[in-house]
Amino acid sequence: MKKTLGVVCGLAVAVAAVCTAGAWYTGKQLPGVLEHATAQSNLQMQKSFKGLGATARLELVSLEQHLFSSVARYRFTVQNLELGDEPSNLELTLVDRIEHGPFPWQRVKAFKLMPVMAASSTSIEKDATTAEWYAASGDVSPVQGEFSLGYDQSYDGTLRLMPLDIAKDGSSVKFSGFDLGMSGDFEGKRLKLDGSMGTLQVSMVDSETPPLKFDLKGLKLVADLTLTPYDFYEGQADVTLDDSAFTFGDRQVPLTVKGVEQRNTYKVNGDKVDARAAYKVDAITYDGKAVGGGQLVVAVNRFDIPALQAIMAIYEKHMPQLQETAAAGQPPELELNAEEQALMQVQMMQLLAGKPQVAVEDLSFKTANGESRFNLTLDLAKPTSADLPSDQLVRQMIEKLQSSLSLSKPMIGDLAALQASLEGQDEAQVKQAAMAGEMVGQMALYSKLATLKGNDIIANLHYADGQVAFNGQKMTVEEFAALVMSSLGGLQPAGN
Fold it and tell me: Is the bond preceding 306 in cis, omega lying within 30 degrees of 0?
């Protein structure tokens, strides 16, 4: 018995020694780790805010250290943030309560027994700036985070936006909260996100405009990204929204959208990048009447990354100017000096040398009685010279183009009938509008710009090596242009 007790006591002393030594080691390492993490955060925010006009910065203000725990305070500032009519500044104090490893108590009590450097609980400090935000969240920190920091400078945890309930001057916001699981490393080389929101209900009442209401349900965010040597991420990032409802206008017309998806994929091959974005909506209703659903899938392939980044850098330099002209209601125009024009030309030629491809893989819309589709693939190539006449330049740049269009006559009829119904037309007028698909089909057939196949209006185009194949007929580019012009001219009303 004495021997057993001695072994148990010895193990207890050994474990205590390990924990104390680990905590002491963590305490010694922590200042450097936090300074490094803060620097990396600022670097990532600088990249994220680049070109937006706003700037953000995180600063470690103080670090109060003890043997088993520490308290760090950060100042988070954002300048020139556009939340309304005028840019504003935001300053928050973040409080980070850190339990030293290797076995922080908050992880032990949750049966998470893998050793880590530290476990932290982060919150926003209550002050004059955040007092109203605290009140809306039930007098708890509106933003809370719990993270574990690994000895390999990795992190894993959850960031929470707490539920809010705000009512002021007839307007209101009810928010169920948002949980975002995050994992990665301090260098930003790996990033995984898994977030979800229950509901967000907003009602905005203004004496000068009709009320605006919207209700969002079931938001989800999932991402698995890896930083590339070219300083942007590759991988998958998806956002889905189960239901959304909007009420607006003088008549307070309801609009509902169900099953919204956005799925983005980025892949790097050598110094080229492929990107694909897919957008989908399951069902739209307007004023209680079914409209339909559809999707859009676009992709770019073989885009030269260094050339693309150089071109984007030129645009970012002129972004404030472009934003000013757009805000003034003028069409934005990029004004480049001689040096920038020469650089843009060189980079565009480099981009085209990689034979990039742009594609609309699927643009489709479906109603109760029909579905229409369109797709297009454009393959580009580097011309022999950038100084060629414009017509020759375009011909050499476009290596191949393929597109197909299938318009459903019943779908056109459904949309025309819906419009007539929403405009308050009587039943006979709505039935007449439903015949719009047949009329469009006859016009397309008469113009020779399309063919008919059952209930679908079909048009196909293929271009390569200076030759066009349009709806199965081969012709030159000039012949195709003449056909289109004459066909469109024939559709003009008499007297025009």
Answer: no
Give the DSSP per-residue string, 224-284: EEEE-TTSSEEEEEEEEEEEEEEEETTTTEEEEEEEEEEEEEEEEETTEEEEEEEEEEEEE
Neighbours of 392 (CB within 10 A): 12
Torsion of Cα atoms, 249 then 252 then 257 then 262, to 10°:
30
pTM for the model stands at: 0.85
What amino acid occupies position 279?
A: Y
Buried b (16+ CB within 10 A) or exposed e, 38-57: bebbeebbeeebebeebbbb
Instruction: Tell me the pairing of strands 233-248 and 190-206.
Output: unpaired
- The series of mean pLDDT values per 10 residues for the chain, 496 residues long, is 36 34 52 79 75 77 83 85 66 86 69 76 88 90 88 86 90 93 86 94 88 94 92 92 93 94 95 96 94 97 94 84 75 83 93 96 96 96 90 90 95 90 80 82 83 93 92 88 76 48
SS3 state of residue 305? helix
